[in-house]
Amino acid sequence: MFNIPNFILPDVLLLIFPFIVIGMRLFVTTRSQLPWRLANIGFIAIFILLNLIPFSGGAERIFISNWKVDDFGVLMREVLIVSALLGMWLSKDYFEHGADKKPQMHQIAEFIGAIAFATFGGFTVVSACDLLTFFLGLEIATIPMYALAAWNKRDQYGSEAATKYILMGSVATAFELFGFSYLYGFSGSLHFSEIQAAVASGSSPLLWIAVLFLFCGIGFKLTLFPFYTWAPDVYEGAPTPVTAVLSVTSKATAIAFLVVLVYGPLSPIQDKMAPLIALLAGVTLFVGNLGALKQSRLRRFMAYSSIAQAGYIMVALLGPATTAKTAIIYYLFVYAVSNYLAFFVFSIIGHHREETFQSLRGLSKQNPSLAIALAISMFSLAGIPPLAGFFGKFHLFFSGASTGHYTLVAFAVLNNVIALFYYLQLIKAAWVDEPDGHLTPLRLTKRQREVVILLSIAVIFLGFVPFLSNNIFAGFTN
Amino acid sequence: MNLLNCLILAFLLFGIGVWGLMRRRHLIGMLISIELMLNAANINFISFAYFTAHDATAGALFSIFVIAVTACEMAIALAIIVTMYRRHKSLDVDQLRDLHD
Amino acid sequence: MISDITLGYSILLLPLITFVVNGLFLGNKCAKAAAIFAVVCNGLAFAAAGALAFIYFSDFAPQATSLFDHTFIPFVGGLVARIGMLIDPLSVMMLVVVTFISFMVNIYSIGYMREDRAAGRFFALLSLFSFSMLGLVVATNLFQMFIFWELVGVSSYLLIGFWYHKPSAVSASKQAFILTRFADSFFLLGIVLVSYVVGSFDFSTLNSLSLVDFQKQFINLGLVTISKSEALVLGSILIFTGGWGKSAMFPMHIWLPNAMEGPTPVSSIIHSATMVVAGVYLVARLFPFFAICDNALTLIMWVGAFTMVFAAVIACTQKDIKRILAYSTLSQLGYMMFALGACKIGLVVAVTGWTASTFHIFTHAFFKCSLFLIAGSLIHQVHTNDLDAMGGLGKKMKLTYVCTLISILAISGIPPFSGFFSKDEIILAAFQGQHYVVFGLALFTSGLTTFYMFRLFFLAFHGEPRHEGVKAGHVHEDFAMTLPIVILAIPALLSGVLGKGIFEEFFVPGQLNVPQLMKLEHAEWLPFVAVGIAVIALVIAWVLYASPWAKVQRALDETNRSGIYKIVYHKFYFDEMYYAVVRQFIFGGIARAARAFNDYVIEGLLAFTVWFVHKLGDLVRLAQAGYLPFYLGTLIVGVLLWRFFGQLPL
Amino acid sequence: MNTILFNSIWVIPLLTVLACVMIPATYAKTIRTIHVTSATIVLAIVCYLTYVVYALSGTPTNPAAAPLALRFFTDIPWLSMFKANYIVGADGLNMLLLALTAFIVWAGVLVSLNIKGNQKIFFALIQLLATSVYGVYMSFDLVLFFVFYEMEALCMYLMIACYGSGKRDYGGKKLTLTLAFGSSMILATLFGLFFESGATSWNLIEIAKTNLPMDFQMWAFPLMFMGFAVSSSLFPFHFWSPDGHSAAPTAVSMLAAGVMMKMGAYGCLRVAMFLMPEAAKIWLPYVVALLIFNVVLGPFIAIRHKDLKYITAYSSISHLGLIFLGLAALTPIGLRGASLQMISHGFLTGLFFATIGMIYERTHTRDITEMGGIMRKMPFLGVGFVLAGFAGLGLPGFSGFIAESTIFIGAFQQDSTLTRIVTILAILSITTTAVYILQTANRMLHGPLPQKYESLTDGCFREKLVIVVLVACLLFIGVCPGWISEILDQSIAPIFEKINNIP
Fold it and tell me: Which chains reach chain A with 3 or more Cβ–Cβ distances below 8 angstroms?
């Protein structure tokens, strides 16, 4: 009986406690809040444990040869947990009453369980040391998402969205597998270290086909051009909390996948992949920004915006390892916070209305603080200082520019103007447009109010207060 | 019977899968063609494992895992398609056009 | 010399203090206090000026000195803008004249502005006006000159448009300011150019230049590259352009008659001492500099001469009493200008013209001021400027009648009145300069002057009253208004006799860097010719307008007149041309084109960009038709896309 | 002590905002009082510090900041990943600009005390805007600089779109997006600057010591210069300002035209020209060509307009063109003139927009053809407007004349053909300026008074106070320009040295 090292505890915990949450359903009534409470405790406990890992000592934290918990892994885990926690809080109201003119959802315990599994998939991806674990992690992160997208059984859009999602997702999986197979064939091994050695020793068409298929496969999850086409429909069709989780957790997993690949096994040919990455980044953010220009439904709007954000994240992949990792982690934190802030506001709006630009009208008159929160999140997503979003983008561009890709950076920065344009559209709807007819009063639950305030403060201060970014950076350098 | 033939076979299979995916308008049919694509990957793994790779077990193992994982995926897919059917009373892809710009 | 400095400061500061106190505190509270304060301060200023003049001229062979000289802004190297007080015969003379005139006008305004509620503001602005002029007069350098030059302009704008509810007054003030401003822009350019070439603003430096030092260096003026000596000539002409506009020389003269819309005291101070003579003063001040810049003086002479005749001809036909005076001012300014220009004799220079011109500034100030004040009091009686409504006023206003006669004799150059001496010298200068054309014109114009002045005189004071008020005898002489007229009549009578000596002794334009002609024969016959012509003109005027067989009514109506008369009567249609140019060319042409370029080209490009981006957005959303097979297709296409465009070494 | 005061200049407005977050919006009076107080305090601090800088001029400054002569120099580590530090300091130039900002902010708060809508948010936004402007002027770290520089976009749109008039959404978007476009160009070049210079931090002074490769400068300088010039509405990026100003509420127009548009010119001088002098020397003589629109055509366009704010906007465009003329002259006098013009125009246009706003509040129209004779009803505001006009057309006694004449003399020292031509044209176009200003003043203030304006009232005390203070500033600079040029020269000297010492 080998001893379990302490740094593995969070992963183990995350693996088992969804089962407890779901299993508990057998013993308590459907009305009971117990699973919900437990889930909260579980996630928060995991988050705290994760923060303790750096103190657990041991430079190389490797568990049975193919499960390593490096600094990047720990920080990614924190991002994923934060996202899961926020997603759970966001989803709670949708299980208490219908929203966005859709019926109420059921089985919160299973819902949380699914989120937890997806998160665990993310954990697996960042701690994988061989292709198999890697692949499994990706699948564990993806499959629950399919289910989540269709969670609202009584909503026809949900099922359609799920269908599109899973069909395209499986094709993407096929691509990835194909890529893996060639990678395996090229290096003759599944283990990253050996693959890296093989790649370093020299490349061949096999390797490049593999790279191509891997990028196309992950391009689907990361909504890169032209693999993003599912995103707007799925984001719109899926329940709002699922959309939020999709836009953060699944993106985070995908980008983690790329980071692990590009700075792990494929690191010797990073410079050769640079043109492809640059192209993907540039085209994706451009298309995403263009698509968002004339939207009227909030979640579809957020879909395009998140496509553009994916493009921005890709810019960072051009930089050296430490810089890029710091940038990406920091940006993911910021992006998660801003995004969830937006979604929380939408959920409050959508309680009695549809989630469209129309129903934002007159918000500033009706509830100024909510309008301010919305403005903050939008400006943060648009990358306006001193909000966190700007510093996030600044990290990304810094990483991209540090290897001299000024043209791409300039292009990305110019795209910010288009981005600002459509974010302003939304702010205009909330601040300038006069409401047409009577406005149904907004009701904020205590939780919603607290979370919105918390997130707003975070968005404001995570940026110019150097706490977060300096700590992340320190995490990589010391 | 050498590596290249197997790879070509796998690639053809993949291509057939793609072709079917494009041609089919029936969800189940599309699922099946996706299965073909996945299995093409499996063939790749097996053949690499058999011919070149220095740890042959890994490849075989991988393909087995793939089969298992795909099974789950297909299960979910079928479940979703069932709910689809409940709503639309058809499995024709052309009718999936409620969500669009 | 401490007393001089205090005197100098008090001359400059008293009007300023008046402006500040009246403008901020007394102005809108109580007009009477403001008036008294203004009169007192200006009186003190005049006293100070007089004292200064006495001290200055009392010591033998006075030198040009500067009482004080503060640094204003330092520019590169020696290029330093200073605020100083230059004291030489010319400036001292001007100080006395300006302070005296503004003192008189202030007294007069007490009466003239009695009914006006805004009188306080009026007195404030009047003091600002005289302050600016005084600052201009004592300027030690071009920069200071320009500063006060602009202040003069703006205070004239404020005073001409004093009755801002009268649209005509407003537009007149605007026209005055913009026309002079237009000239000033060239003045400024000249200052910048000259200061760049010479490296200094100071008159002392400029007046002691010699072109030969600059012939070797060259300067790039954008389109052309010219030697610095040529640049200096250009600069001198540009600087003169400033005076051109300020002194309302043809063709920038039209603002001056229109400026009659202002209150009469303003017209009188503008025409006699403050504004219009500034141009002449500028040329006189920089005379040595202009003297070395060949052609500059010739230009000045012709501009002056033409304006002289041109204005005199128009004056003969006008019916608005103030306009007649305005055109007479233009004509007199023409005298002064061309006298300065006429100093140039081939390659040498004679300074008699300079002396004559400054002398004429001196004498002209008094009688012109008094003439305007008289016009004002006439208008005050009959409430119109039109000669139609006057006539027969002589019997009612004895004092005024006498003073008018004195001033008119003075302006017509009849000895022993002041005008005779200065004008005689001017004509003499033209003769000595062998500019015989101009000489002839000058004689002719002196005749015209006599004619139109006596035309005015007879029509206003003689004959039968044509105004009900006058007929009914509601005419009286306001004391406050008559007093300055009477006082002014004295210098109008005597300043010539007394001044001649001083001017011929002290008034020389400083050291010249050009060969100078000293000995000039004095044409003894000239005065008789001039006076003869004047007398003939007088007789004609009498025959036409005052003699028993004069047909006054026919003389006054401008209908059914010959074409030439019409053209002259409408001032050669210059106002119309001016408005046509401004409206059609400036506003309608350039401005419209500029705005069109901005609104259609620039904004159009912007709109196109936005439209284009939105179209691209439509393309993206076009792909998002919700059609699953298409989406799946994009996956496959994507692979191929990046296979071929991903720049992978495949 | 002074250093702490100096840093508090941009902190106090933020603290004010935080303090007001707690207070519910219903206590509008309390909120107003707090904001007025804080603005006044900042004004006092800035004036004191300006005096200190003037008093200490000539004494040795902080050696860490050499060659720039900086006082109150602060350097604290900030963002470790890309070595951005918090570096602030003051030399004469930015101290005077800070003073200008403090005055305009103070005036802006005062004039908008009775603004419609949610005052709590409005004043918070004004204070944020003030923070950003203060920050831009005092920061010497490029990241910090950019953060502050870009911050205004956040406030501008909301203020214009929610509290503005007319086409407020359009105007606000146009302004915000154009400025964002400019700052995106700047950001792109900033990265280039950092990595090409190989500096170990974003410290402006340190980067200035490295020598950037020429080929990089050649493409980076125009990008950055234009990026900055956008917010100073240099042709062809001037189009945002008329619509933006006309849509904005009074205080925002004052701040935007008064201080925000100077940030661009300041950036051109402090960052672009200081860091890339070689390229500046090559490019600027051509940049001058753009000024033909700003300086020569701008006034003509103003002549054709009827809306007071459009007229003022175009006059701003032409005046800011003069700033660039001064910069492009690349002579000490030209640079001094440009800085003088920044300050002078700040006060001038502040006064302009303040009076226009007050008049608009009463007449509810900005169309000069509908007004007339209102001088009779509100002499004080009328006089204020006329004085602003006189200052605008460069009347001696006001600061405008000092600045413009300095620019003209300085620009004339530059011997390149294009600069000469433009300088001459600029000097000659002082007439056009006079034309539109007088035409506006006459149409609006003079002539007969329409019936509907019989009931108008003159300015109340605080409005009069604002006008008096701003006029006083204009006169003060105009009458004794010696000391201000002295301060400016000391801070411009190092910049000019760097440009001048090019082999």
Answer: B, C, D
